[in-house]
Design goal:
seven-stranded antiparallel beta sheet; Cathepsin B, Chain A; 17 helices; alpha+beta; 11% strand; 413 residues; 2 domains; two-stranded antiparallel sheet; 9 strands
Amino acid sequence: MSEPAKNPGQQPESFQPQKPEMMRALEEAQGQTEAQGASQATSSSGGSGSIPGIHRLINSDGGENYWFNGCAAYVMEALGEPDYDYWFFAGLTGDNFAQVFARDHFRGNGVTDYRLSEAGGHRFIEDVFGTCGYASAFVTEKQFAADKGTYLRMLTGYIDRGIPVIRHRWPVSSNQWGWGVFVGYENGGETLLYITGDKTEPERIPLEEALFDAAPESQQSESGWIFVGEKKEQKNLRQIYRDAIINLPKLLTAKTDAYCFGSAAFRAWAAEVESGKFDSIKQKEFSSLAHNLYIVYVVNVATNSGGGWGFMDKAKELNPDFTFLEEVRRQYRTMGLLWWSKYKADDGFPEEYAKLHGGLPDNLEDLNAGIFHCKIKSLQNPKKRAKVVAVIRQCADCMDEVVRIIEQGVKET
């Protein structure tokens, strides 16, 4: 999920993605049937269609907080790829493993949003599907609007074949934000059926509204449509998981002038709180700004403290020599305690940690600096703030350990 940037940056570079063979074939087929007057999707009477088995995109109550991964899983489900589910993509992208921090303005909730906010960020999305053996293309809303007939035939053709189309929209209103999938169309495509978030039924969006990009020219993250094309090759699932784990240290130490991941993200976040950035903000004002300025980072650590377990379990199942992943899991579990001591309190880990360390650590929720209990005074009062900063820096230490454990473990395998 994503929200508007408060200080828009530079527009990503323009690009003209190559259309996968499946998409070119689809266009040709649609063109032929249209010429014969048999194209339901674009006939004068209008047509309608929807993919089978429409369901909700994500389950936020279950920790599915990075919506691109829900979109990707939705498409792969339609393509008959059960191995590529939400948790697979959340691990593959790094969303469920990396803490993020923006040095300039709000960039979204995780790695995928951050990568897409860069110039040429569409390539990150295409690489994700490429890892799964599929061709794909990111088509901007401006491109779609400039050649609406072609892309509308592609979209309706995808739907007719039971394949959803992913949409990324840098938000302009509460029901238009973030990631979602088009699952159907009406009136020849002039009305689109769209699923996003936890909604159980699709909403109906006029095509012209779906194409209206109200973001300013300087908007950092570009709106667009993602068409996942033909399967290029069968990938080795074991190798995908193995490579993802091996590449984690690189991801967790990534830094740019605009943002950073991993332990650097925790330390930059701690330094920002410590600097007194929030000192002049009143509680009422903070309530409207809290998510973008602060709580998004708490959600990040809370989600990731348990979100990557399934990916690590599968990686270890497919790669039995990756025994070090249990140590990695312990570091993420510790970060869970630093967020909230009640998190997964029934699994025995809090007691185990307390016995080993002589008690449980301070945590952000109990310090009124978490997701559910966040008071501006906790970030303003010097004594309270010092405790909050100390907790965040402990998380950074855990992330350093994750990198160390993986690098050492990989060397020894």
